[in-house]
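FIELD: query
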Amino acid sequence: MKIGTVIGTVTFSHLAPQFRGGKWVMVSPMGSEELTGKRTYSQASTPVVYDKLGAGVGDQILYVEGAEATQPFPYPIPLDAISVALLDSFQFSPPA
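FIELD: result
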């Protein structure tokens, strides 16, 4: 699992029927500098994540990538990342 901040949404003109009921969000992954407040947004790549939890811009989420992202579905689906939790709060202490 990875932690990230939703920084935008993606709109499609056509969408596979398997994805109805959810939306797509752009996520800025959070590393140690983002978790400690030294930097607002990650300089890493920005994944597009499938979300059925209702995450909005500015929300912090947990998401999974790869084969684990397809586990909630009972059939094969072309998916690379999915949100799994909306975070109310978190605490991070970098290792000494």
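FIELD: remark
The radius of gyration is 14 Å.
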